[in-house]
Q: What sequence folds into this?
């Protein structure tokens, strides 16, 4: 009798372990995920200074994606929503040109998604933190608050903005992307996205001059209520 119980216990443990491993091989069911969530399995990983490049398979399609530096292993599942597709993109770090490359924002692994689903009942949009900063308006320029308060007035116009760089993303769509704040706001709008071919660092106080675009839609979820494009750096304070 004891032998039978021992054998049964061993078999039960084996079956449980096998089921657990099988569950790890499967993605989270689509009906359990927030609408619009995409899932792909990692086939290859290449690391560079600022990004992690992943070759993935989404259903029957294989392609490469670039995400902010993160740890992923072959066989893992990557979950994402917002992605910007680039064609014939040249990576200087890898010395490689991708026929198709997705720049993915907020990529998550299966553990992170599972924990998030357990904590919240509804998906939350990513938020930008307001920085405690007060930057003097540039001479002949406007504040971020003034810009957001008068979109029709400034749409298509060249304006001068001075602010603190709070986030930097380099080399996307042949330009660099910066989040800038100056301490002013209009309603809930206090952060301005700026694109430029020039390079600045997070924490720098920069005077930019660029062209204002309103309701800019780059596709794949990249929409901007207001954006300053083709900006030139007029002055920099580190």
A:
């Amino acid at each position: 009798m004891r032998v039978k119980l021992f054998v049964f216990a061993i078999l039960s443990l084996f079956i449980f372990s096998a089921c657990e491993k099988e569950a790890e091989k499967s993605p989270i069911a689509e009906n359990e995920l927030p609408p619009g969530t995409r899932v792909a399995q990692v086939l290859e990983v290449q690391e560079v200074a600022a990004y992690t490049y992943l070759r993935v398979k989404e259903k029957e399609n294989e392609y490469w994606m670039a995400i902010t530096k993160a740890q992923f292993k072959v066989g893992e599942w990557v979950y994402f929503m917002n992605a910007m597709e680039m064609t014939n993109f040249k990576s200087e770090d890898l010395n490689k040109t991708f026929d198709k490359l997705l720049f993915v924002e907020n990529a998550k692994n299966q553990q992170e998604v599972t924990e998030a689903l357990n904590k919240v009942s509804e998906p939350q949009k990513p938020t930008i933190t307001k920085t405690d900063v007060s930057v003097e308006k540039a001479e002949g320029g406007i504040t971020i608050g003034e810009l957001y308060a008068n979109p029709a007035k400034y749409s298509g116009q060249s304006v001068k903005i001075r602010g603190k760089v709070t986030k930097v993303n380099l080399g996307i769509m042949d330009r660099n992307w910066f989040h800038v704040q100056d301490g002013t706001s209009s309603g809930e709008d206090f952060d301005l996205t700026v694109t430029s071919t020039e390079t600045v660092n997070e924490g720098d106080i920069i005077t930019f001059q660029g062209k204002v675009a309103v309701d800019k839609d780059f596709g794949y979820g990249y929409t901007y209520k207001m954006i300053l494009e083709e900006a030139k750096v007029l002055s920099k304070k580190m």
